[in-house]
Amino acid sequence: MTHKPIRKAVFPVAGLGTRFLPATKSMPKEMLPINDRPLIQHVVEEARKAGIEEFIFVTGRQKEMLEEHFDFQPELEQTLESRGKNDMVAKVRASEMKAGQLFLTRQPKPLGLGHAIWCAKKLIGDEPFAILLPDDLVLHDQGCLSQMVDTYNEKGGNVIAVKEVPRADTSKYGIVDIGAVEGNITEVKGLVEKPSPEDAPSTLSVVGRYILQPDVLDHLAAFETGAGNEIQLTDSMAKMIGDRAFHGLKFAGQHYDCGSRLGFIEANIAYGLADTEIGDNVRDILKNYS
Ligand code: G1P
Question: Do 123 and 8 meet the contact criterion of CB atoms below 8 Å apart?
């Protein structure tokens, strides 16, 4: 059976980034760099590798820098070309979004992740789509979303990225109630947003990558609040369980929670080490700190 292709991806980028103040006082947290490119570019590149054609940013106040980043910069390119810096020209070009690929909508108030996704409903339309949270980076050649597309092509329905976390940490994540397990694919029987360790149905957490059917938008439209008094995406996903296939993929690759300062620093070390230009130098520098 063939399933409708995943052509669109939503990037919720309206968050305030309070954990990174004062760095994020006037700069969006999604522009913080991991190695040589901002967080948002890492996730856009991951989406591109997965075949995404339309990139939908849900932005907010003071987030204009994000759209600028993906724009054509003719003066910069000319200057680099005239100086013979062709490697840099290539890097700048790789960060450009072609005409007709970038779509923007705004979330006027921070009412939760579910609400942010609902704000993109017109742009999503009536087709299955992906969501990538720029706080979550996965270092892997194929990319996390591309692995999920493979799972979706096999199973259809909804697919989320999942990973095991310590029980003490369940209250930071969406947690899966696990059904049948087939290798690295788990049937999702239930979903709970940020349960306490005593109440968590498992220790399998939701990582910020989703392939969802558009029905989720109908559930989100009820604007029901959940954990933290926010409109949670997890609660609306839970309402779709039983309607059709719903699976969690234990993806290959290392995950970094760049929404925390420690995860952000670790990601910078890991991406630096993985960089063919500077990896060996980063390894040498680290020897000074062990
Ligand atoms: C969001 C989701 C949560 C998920 C997490 C992954 O939480 O609500 O279910 O586990 O992203 O990063 P947030 O990090 O926005 O609190």
Answer: yes
